[in-house]
Design a protein that fits this description.
3-stranded antiparallel sheet, alpha+beta, 337 residues, 31% helix, 10 helices, 8-stranded antiparallel sheet
Length: 337
Amino acid sequence: MSMRRREFTLGLLVTAGLQGLARADEGVQHEERALMGTRVRITLVEADAARRRAAFEAAWTRMGALADQMSRYREGSVVRQLAARAGGAPLAVPAETLQVLLAAREVAAFTGGAFDASVGAYRDWHFGDDAEGHAAEIADAHRLAEQRRLVGWRRIELDAKARTARLPTPGMALDLGGIAKLPILQAGLAEIARSGVAAAMIDGGGDVVCHGNPPGRDWRVGIRDPRAPQRLAGVVALRDGVVASSGDYERFFDRAGRRWHHVLDPASGWPTQGVHGVALVARDIGAVNGLGAAIMVGGLQRGQRWLAQRPGVDALIATDDSTWLSSGMQAQLTPAG
């Protein structure tokens, strides 16, 4: 199964609780497109067809523009420009990218560097699904050791007043994949709300944002079981909330008896081990953005300590041995079906 197919299946699983809605309720419409290396699905609840069409187009346009801006693969993106200018003068960056960079700095400080956007310097990992067509490839240990000197979130220079960013050392590079998707989805949701649609959900390959609710019900969002990704661990009911997921089943290949996946430990450049996946549920994206990837790096115990400082976040963390649920997740996770 190709990576794009795996991600497409994930999107269907996450929104499994909504499949009957389009048949039962007039005015519900779904649209799906490839975006940010996955399948993004928008569901609208709106009786007026013209308003639905306007909302879809506004959301797709906005999300596409932001994805192009923050992609490490898109030629001319802000991320590519920063890497090309590393060691040189600061670069003026759009407000949206600056906000993501500031959020990355905040979660890096909160997690002691377990999340680090400068892992883009580990350039030699390829998972067979990137925009440049590389085959799956394990990075060379000596190259990772050399690239390690280019990684460090404290070195990313941001000037919020001047709206500039700078990478001070040639060879530094950013990867915003772990922190840009949720703000991009949220921007699409904001466009939908501005279009006058009262209820909508956007599912971006396991990251879900929603506002309002279908008539007489909440949104039902499936939580994938990281230890058995072909099935759901359960379903949560959401209204104006977010589900954020990270896992070793999203972009990976298996070789030499081990899974090689895209969540890298900033301290070494190697894929994380021990935690297979994390699902976080909260009211707003700021509470969870980047935290799932950090827990993949930091492990269960550090993750539990971080979550204790985020009382509005419910969590599922799957490790080699077990699946841990916060008390809030235990209370709201119901069987799928």
